[in-house]
Amino acid sequence: MNAFNSDLNEPSPVPMEVKPRALNASMEIVLTDPKIIVEHLSISYSDGTESLKDIYLAIPKNAITVLFGPAGGGKSTLLRTINRLNDLADVVKVQGHVWLDGVDILSPEIDVIKLRRKVGIVFARPVVLPLTIRQNLTYGLELAGQKDRTIHADAVERSLKAAAIWDEVKDRLDEPAVSLSGGQQQRICLARSLVLEPEVILLDEPTSGLDPISTGKVEASLQTLKENYTIVLVPHSVQQAARVADYAAFFLGGELIEYTIGKQIFTNPLDSRTEDYVEGRFG
Amino acid sequence: MKAGKFKDILITSLIKVCGYSAIIFVGMIFVFLIKEGSPALIRVPLENFLQLRWYPIEDRFGLLPLIGGSLIVTLGAAIFSIPLGIVSAVYIAEVAPRWAREILKPLVEVLGGLPSVMLGFIGILVIVPALRQALNLPTGLTAFTGALILGGMAIPTIVSVAEDALDAVPKTYREAALAMGATRWQTIWKVTLPAAKSGVLTAVMLGVGRAIGETMTVMMVTGNAAVFPTGFGAIFKPVRTMTATIAAEMGEVASGSTHYHVLFLIGIILFLISLTVNLIAASVVFRQRKRTERILS
Ligand SMILES: Nc1ncnc2c1ncn2[C@@H]1O[C@H](COP(=O)(O)OP(=O)(O)OP(=O)(O)O)[C@@H](O)[C@H]1O
Ligand SMILES: [Mg+2]
Question: Stretch A243-254: mean pLDDT, rounded?
């Protein structure tokens, strides 16, 4: 974290006068020491439509924050902005800031490579590289310049255990990763992002292609992981959102409609649109 | 229902006829080549083919200078067109901004469609005198000139096909690598290019294949002296390729003569060379494809 900060000469201060749209008493917890603050963020793609409209969101440490809502709401766009993967997309306009530990990661001076090591991401469809299981994990370390074999071995074991897949693959680390089932591959991808010891883990519908048992395993490992990481999850269903959310933000058409603690939003939402969606009346 | 079924059968059989006739044509060409070429093996002793002189009037049929000439020109063309072609494809597919890509891609396609004779003109009028002056050679019609122009012909094919292959690599691969903290170059070198390997290899085969089979331009710019290329300096001397030999001599040879049959034998050799190259490429591509299919399933 400090190495990351020191890359910038002078981290800009986080403006705290801005407050989220739907502020609930419990949100004060979030705001005392947030890991990420999304501040008045607006993003437009080249087709001209505004995919995120003036989003304000503070994401707490050591918790699972869920971004949910119907298709096209801008959830993936927000997630991919947090580790600057959206740099690859046809984004024509970005306004606002995303603060990570008080550093504006949208600033052009940011070392994007370092940022991505600090903010890992897991996609909807597992993308294992055509290498062995072990190589899939050590690849990121090698890219980071880490050559020490014993450090590799330790990191592989630690992250496979954290992703709850160690027992299933420990005897076959040198087999091709593609020979694993989809559910196992997804946990390999989770482990692969953990190997770099990130601080934030972004997950975009990580269980959308998985059976209920694999889904359960991924969700269980997230529950353990949140003790050490900041987790931002786009769930593949409202049910999953309700199961795992410590905090939940409801997105509709690029707007953040409501953001509060999970229990609240799924039992007693403030906004009628949230209520309609949570109760399955649209989307 | 019944009419639909009849139409179905009709179309199926039509497609079958077309497919089989294509195979039959190729087979007939091959049979013809063998029929016209094999008498050469009976009439001419093997040692004759292995000498270093090609002088048909005196019944000297040394094939080595021709094979050597083809090899040196093709290899020379491959050595600079393959890296240049692949790097250009990487630039267009991965690095260039969108507007540059939209200009470059069609431009490359147009260059690929240039008739080879035109390149021969450019070779004779520009490269040949320039090379002769620059290196103070007796003649600018050399293997190097041929390689340069053949390579120039191969590049658009290589760029175009390799660019398609790179473009077809799923975006998710790149994102996965970038998310792991890879730089853009690490992503290209370690993930995108390996993932597009079969397509890039096909591009190389098509490009170099075009160079091997090319006749017109090499005839125009290589000097056509049937001298076996020895040593490094040989690339700056005139050579004669197999294709140029056939094209130049077939018109004036008496049908049924030994010389005539030997020309067909050269044709068979050319055919075998490109067949081998294609088989090697196909087997590599096939292996690769099976692997990617497993990945994507
Ligand atoms: N790369 C892109 N180029 C252009 N437009 C895009 C791009 N990515 C997303 N969009 C647009 O931005 C809007 C929000 O998309 P986004 O993928 O963020 O939504 P989402 O909430 O993740 O939806 P889903 O639940 O379907 O994944 C959509 O209208 C979409 O068309
Ligand atoms: Mg999405």
Answer: 92
Here the CATH number for the domain that contains residue A86 is 3.40.50.300
Domain topology for B46-288: MetI-like fold (1.10.3720)
Q: Where are the domains of chain B?
A: 46-288
- Res. A28: pLDDT tops 60: no
Question: What is the ipTM metric for this complex?
Answer: 0.79
Whether B51 contacts B227, CB under 8 Å: no
Nearest CB neighbour to B180, from listed A130, A178, A192: A192
Least confident of A18-22, A79-83, A235-239, A273-277: A18-22
Strand partners for B223: B239
A245 within some domain: yes
Strand extents, DSSP E, B18-137: 54-55, 60-61
Helix, strand and coil content of chain B, in percent to the nearest 5, comes to 80, 0, 15
Residue A168 lies in a domain: no
| This prediction's pTM | 0.77
Please write the tens of the pLDDT for every residue from A152-209.
999 999 999 888 889 999 999 999 888 898 888 988 998 999 998 899 999 999 888 7
Is any atom of ligand 1 closer than 6 Å to the C-beta of A44? no
**Token pair 């410590």 is at which residue?**
A246
Look at chain A and report how many structural domains it folds into.
Answer: 1
Q: Are B212 and B267 in contact (CB under 8 A)?
A: no
CA nearest A254: which of A19, A71, A23?
A: A71
How far apart are the C-alpha atoms of B77 and B85, rounded to whole Å? 11
Which pairing describes strands A103-104 and A255-261: parallel, antiparallel, or unpaired?
Answer: unpaired
- CA–CA gap between residue A143 and residue B263 (Å, rounded): 56
Atom of ligand 1 nearest to the CA of A77: 18
Cα–Cα dist A103/A11, whole Å:
5
In the block, tokens 């995919």 appear at: A51
Three-state SS at A179: helix
* Nearest-by-Cβ selection for B179 from A121, A130, A178: A121
For residue A102, being part of any structural domain is answered with yes
Question: Quick check: is A258 in a domain?
Answer: yes
| Mean pLDDT across chain A | 84
Q: Domain containing A64: what range?
A: 22-125+199-278
Ion ligand 2: protein residues whose beta carbon lies under 5 Å: A 76
